[in-house]
Hints:
Blueprint (H helix, E strand, L loop, with lengths): L2 H25 L5 H11 L4 H13 L3 H15 L3 H11 L6
Amino acid sequence: MSNKQNDKYIETFKSNLEDSYLKHLKEDIPETLIDLIKEEMENDYYDRQQASEDLIRNYQRSTPKEKHMIDLAFIALCGFSLETLITTYERMTDNEPN
């Protein structure tokens, strides 16, 4: 195979690979931002207990204005403010507020 033929073969291979990869990505496109958030949370490998503690601690250290903005985001995601979710979690697990 000549260099010219080899270069053409490589270009065709790269193009087919890119097309295949893009097709795969398009098949996995979430319908909504919330779907993407849910997917990322389900696929992320992290210490959920530590992440929960960090979320509570960071929320409690936030200013009232920051808490309001966080609560709006949570209400959009699940229908409840983070404050309500924290309170519910603490009641369900018999945890004292941090």
